Amino acid sequence: MVKALYRFFVLLFVVTACSDDSETLLDLPLESRNLVGTWQLNGYKISAGGPLPDDFTNIESATRYIFELDGSYTFIEEIGNNPLHEGTFRFIENELVLEPSEGGVDRYSFYIELSRNTMILSPTGPIICIEGCLYRYQRVD
């Protein structure tokens, strides 16, 4: 019950914190076909112990996710331009779940907000941000 309430409040916070974004967010259904493509990191909001900042910090980054129609994904870190992990993805309710094919982590999960050209992720496990963090990705293909 506590976990469900925590998830509800985090989701509520994510939705309300992002409502003033300069792009009009058209919520898309959480379906694989809406996620397919290459998404490049271009901004973040990270709390330093208080509320999240109002605006995203814009960055230039080569970090990206590539999602395929067959349900596979690749996560590429900026440094070295090599895949950091790859595997399969799926949706469980309002979460994007990544299941790497190799490595020590069984899965990564994120609350996701998806529009036509913008994806906002907030980690829910196994790595979380206690005070809150959001990562904004832009569709590049």
Gross CATH architecture? Beta Barrel
CATH class: Mainly Beta
Q: Write out the strand line-up for the largest beta sheet, numbering strands in chain order.
A: 1-3-4-5-6-7-8-9
Largest sheet: 8 strands, antiparallel, barrel
Number of domains: 1
Structural category: mainly beta
Euclidean distance between termini CA atoms: 40 Å
- The averaged pLDDT comes out at 80
Secondary-structure element string: HHEEEEEEEEE
Report the β-strand fraction as a percent range: 35-45%
Explain the overall architecture.
By secondary structure, the protein is mainly beta. The chain has a single domain (about 1-140), classed as Lipocalin (Beta Barrel), CATH 2.40.128. It is built from 2 helices and 9 strands; from the N terminus they run H-H-E-E-E-E-E-E-E-E-E. An 8-stranded antiparallel beta barrel has the order 1-3-4-5-6-7-8-9. A hairpin with a 7-residue loop joins strand 6 and strand 7 (about 110-115). The protein starts with a helix and ends with a strand. Residues about 1-25 have low confidence and may be disordered.
Concise synopsis of the structure shown:
With 141 residues, the protein is mainly beta.
Descriptive tags:
9 strands; globular; Lipocalin; 141 residues; mainly beta; eight-stranded antiparallel barrel
